[in-house]
Specification:
The protein is α/β, with parallel strands linked by helices. It is built from ten helices and eight strands. The longest helix is centred in the middle third of the chain and has 13 residues. The two termini are 18 Å apart.
Length: 282
């Protein structure tokens, strides 16, 4: 199945409206779609309505920011109840503090001569509660400080560089529980992106499963062939389900478009097999 279960709209740090993403997914042959905005479900009803109007099967989704071993990890939630009180409250708490963090980032950039970055980043924000490094990156590209967003992150917005400010996110256990207790399924997003030691990564998978997590993104926009092999093996080793998602943010920025991913390796069990009862269709 051409399932794409990871992408972002203007409700978090994407550049397209939920309706435009649904149309793009449908046009690209996606057969099961989820919008997974960061720590936010404010675009879910719009995504659902647009998808079902296009006869595109839909799952609810979000991507929760977690701090694990001092590193930010993302946990995708799929197929949960949108009105679950604990999930809604948990996401709101996780979003808290982004504005203060953004102001500190702007102050750090000002120290190296880049002034007005906070105000500049706000121009790219669809939801002020979710101002992020991506919005700063777009501003720095637009103003000619860097050639592209990748250069911005290399030079300014990662640990040890001007503009980096850490944030304490949700705990791994809380994020997984919010998702599963709302009837959904928790997935480790793009594990190949995290700079863990082998021991730390093994601990992440072990604790994730112990908390009730069930899935791993094996095929995603930031993974290469070696990652597919590695995380196929780890998915099988831990007895988890496999997910697939482009992590699409913007036509001009994302390496992989909606629906343009390789298939999951055949020996894996897809997450959507466990979510059949949660899929909504017209």
């Amino acid at each position: 199945m051409n399932a794409d279960l990871h992408c972002h709209s203007v409700v978090s740090d994407g550049t397209l409206e939920p309706e435009a993403l649904a149309a793009r997914a449908k046009a690209n042959g996606v057969e099961l779609w989820a919008l997974t905005d960061h720590d936010e479900i404010g675009g879910q009803q719009r995504a659902r309505d647009a998808a079902l109007a296009l006869d595109l099967p839909w799952l609810s989704g979000t991507e929760i920011s977690v701090t694990f071993a001092g590193i930010t990890v993302h946990i995708v939630g799929l197929g949960f109840d949108l009105d679950d009180a604990a999930l809604v409250a948990g996401l709101a708490a996780t979003r808290g503090g982004r504005r203060e963090r953004a102001i500190e980032m702007s102050q750090g950039l000002a120290k190296v001569g880049i002034r007005g970055a906070y105000e500049g980043a706000l121009k790219y924000v669809g939801n002020p509660e979710l101002i992020s490094r991506t919005h700063f990156a777009r501003h720095l590209v637009e103003t000619g400080v860097c050639a592209d967003t990748q250069e911005v992150f290399r030079r300014y917005l990662v640990e040890g560089k001007p503009g980096f400010v850490p944030h304490r996110w949700a705990t791994l256990g809380n994020a997984v529980r919010w998702i599963t207790q709302a009837g959904g399924l928790a997935v480790i997003a793009h594990p190949g992106r995290y700079k863990f030691t082998p021991t730390e990564e093994y601990a992440l998978f072990t604790e994730f499963k112990a908390h009730g997590g069930l899935g791993v993104e094996v095929v995603t926009g930031s993974h290469g062939t070696a990652d597919y092999v590695k995380y196929t093996d780890m998915t099988l080793e831990f007895g988890l389900l496999a997910s697939r998602g482009s992590d699409f943010h913007s036509p001009g920025e994302s390496h992989t478009d909606l629906g343009r991913l390789p298939e999951l390796p055949g020996q894996l069990t897809p997450v959507w097999q466990a979510l059949t009862h949660r899929v909504q269709r017209r």
